[in-house]
Amino acid sequence: MERRSFLKNSAVAATALATGLGQLKAGPAPDSSVTAEKTERIGRPVRVVSIGFHPGHSLDEIAAWVDQAGAGGTDLVVLPETCRGQDGKNQESLSGPTITALSRLARKHRTYIVCPIDRRTATTRHNSAVLLDRRGEVACVYDKIYPVWNSECLQHPPIHPGEAVCVQQTDFGRLGFAICFDVNWPRIWERMSNHGAELVVWPSAYSAGRSLQSHAISYNYYIVSATWAPDCLVYDLDGEQLVHETNNRGEGLNITRVTLDLDRCIFHQDLNLPDKLARLLKDHGDEVIEEKWLPLEGWFILKAKRPGVSARELAQLYGLEELRHYINRSRCEIDKCRGWEFA
């Protein structure tokens, strides 16, 4: 990596951490029923539904699956890449039929929906993931940064590459986005980490497997996929595969439900063991548990044990530094030892 890019990425990380990610958009205030329900939960759980299928289904079919998922209770529904296809017949704007139909369902079920579409603007065409909030409004749009050059970029009109990583503040946590071929560029995934992503959704045409897993290992956020395969992969903060379901409804349909605790947090043993962790567990052993210990990596994961407790907040109170923060700070401090200057 060039020194200038290295410095820029380090500065982004330091700024994001120092400012509490103030550059991120604020999500809508949750409605009172959602807030009341969450107060009785342990940690900070988010209920996710991944719906996988190959393009070619009607909008009515897709809406029916989303409606069913929402009726079962969820915080986030994720659909696969360009869910209605990319053959030129379903190009649409943010006011088109897909977003209009799914906005009604987001509002009806008070859930977020990630709706990937073949998006047209007045001048360009994008492979986009549109996030609808609980009110059915467009919260953000992520445009695929790396379209497949020998197919998408050669279409007429071509798919225009996106220009920015997207991490959106929601009422359950910080949500990042990548699409299909983006899996091959680690810098996208690193920047999502630097911007505080806690959960990354990955609509795709294919499964990616270990390529996707490598990013969870390196950047320590949950990853959930929704693909044409159809399948769903879910990776933990340490890269452990939590779920892989394929065609679980038959006839080319996969619907996976998973609940992920965004309050769980991962640490390196450096500077945290033995004293800081020992004091935390001695004083709050009835509230927080060391859920995972990974001796080969030198990592451990903390989790709240009862409602009303945040493992992350208690860890901060006792001076424990999370793994991604430790790595970013170490990079900056080591570069100072090289004699590099930072603005």
Quick structural overview:
This protein is α/β, with parallel strands linked by helices and 343 residues long.
Give the key terms.
343 residues; alpha/beta; Nitrilase/N-carbamoyl-D-aminoacid amidohydrolase; 2 domains; six-stranded mixed β-sheet; 15 strands; globular
Task: Please identify, by name, the CATH architecture of the largest domain.
Answer: 4-Layer Sandwich
Given helix and strand content, the structural type is: alpha/beta
Q: What fraction of the residues are assigned to beta strands by DSSP?
A: 25-35%
Q: Please, how many helices?
A: 9
The CA-CA distance between the termini, in Å, is: 19 Å
CATH fold title of the largest domain: Nitrilase/N-carbamoyl-D-aminoacid amidohydrolase
Instruction: Describe the global form.
Output: globular
Order of helices and strands: HHEHEHEEEEEHEHEEEEEHEEHH
CATH homology-level superfamily of the largest domain: Carbon-nitrogen hydrolase
CATH top level assignment of the largest domain: Alpha Beta
Stretches with pLDDT under 50, minimum 5 residues: 1-36
Q: How many domains is the backbone divided into?
A: 2
Radius of gyration: 20 Å
Question: Portion of residues in helices?
Answer: 25-40%
Please state how the strands of the largest beta sheet are arranged side by side: 5-4-3-2-1-12
On the 0-100 scale, what is the average pLDDT?
Answer: 90
Question: How would you characterize the largest beta sheet?
Answer: 6 strands, mixed
For the secondary structure, the number of strands is: 15
